[in-house]
Amino acid sequence: MTQVTTIGLDLAKRVFQVHGVDATGTVVVRRSLRRRQVLAFFAKLPSCLVGIEACATAHCWAREITKLGHDVRLIPPAYAKAYVRRNKNDPADAAAIWEAVSRPSMRFVAIKTEAQQAAAGIHKVRAMLVKQRTMLINTLRGLMAEFGIVVADGRQHVEELIAVLTDPAEARIAAPLHDGLMAIVDSLRSLEQRIERIEKQILGWGRSNPTCRHLTTIPGYGPILSSAMAAMVVEPTAFASARHFAASLGLVPRQDGTGGKVKLGPISKRGNGYLRRCWSMARCRCCAASAPRRIPG
Asked: Of 34, 112, 152, 255, which shows the fewest CB atoms inside 10 Å?
């Protein structure tokens, strides 16, 4: 055990897999650990390089193992997957993680602190509530469209549907469905209040963060996008240029080329989808604000 220099650790809910190698590349430990045994196992080891996939709970384990004196590096799952030789199982995954962390050209994910994770987590809560709001609006639109009640696209026009439901003189929707649609309206209003509270918390965190305040000075960057960037991109110096950062968000075209001929397709949509959506919405608002106004007639 004192010869271990590099370890690939495959995380799980209960059973973890360890793949340890010495300086000569010889496998010296290959075993599974229960959740309660992980920290005790690493506490007995001398300082070594530990590779972990950047998946759920990875940042928490990385912080705990770092406290024990080890050099922990998080690897994007897509990069580690390329080193799985054949069948996928826990020992093969741990060996692939060790292989990936040993590569000199490998790219790693910055380990987030608890405060950074909390700031990024509140955006995930907001995204979930917004998704639920969209589901309720689509359900309301679809059911009322079956009775010939249709309004223009956009969330701002949902109030027209609600006005039809709350109108005592309106009789196009029968009583059983009318009560169900009113339940959707109540849930929708409750979601609106929750989203508003969450956004106030995001705005409060952004005012206290210098990076977020700096990002809001960029044209088109609102408080939501700025706080999301500050919370999720914790180490911007890891990118060689702005183009590399755009590629990490999936804002560059896919490439399919061979023999010197390269075909460019649509954007790859790889990376953080929440940041990409926020950036796209901010860009659309910025373009709309800068577009010349049409003169009637």
From this structure: 152
Three-class SS state of 8: strand
- In angstroms, rounded to a whole number, what is the distance separating the alpha carbons of residues 193 and 199? 10
Give the predicted TM-score (pTM) of the model: 0.83
**Distance between CA atoms of 199 and 275, rounded to whole angstroms?**
16
111 contacts 63 by C-beta, under 8 angstroms: yes
**AA letter at 111:** I
- Tokens coding 71: 């050099």
Tokens of 228: 């999301």
Question: What pLDDT, in 10s, does the model give residues 191-237?
Answer: 999 999 999 999 999 999 999 999 999 888 888 999 999 999 988 88
**Other CB atoms within 10 A of residue 125 CB:** 14
Tell me which residue of 48, 49, 42 sits closest to 65, measured CA to CA. Answer: 42
Which of 247, 236, 249 is closest to 277 using CA atoms? Answer: 249
Which ranges in the chain belong to alpha helices (H)? 38-43, 58-67, 77-81, 90-101, 114-145, 158-166, 175-207, 210-215, 223-232, 242-248, 273-290
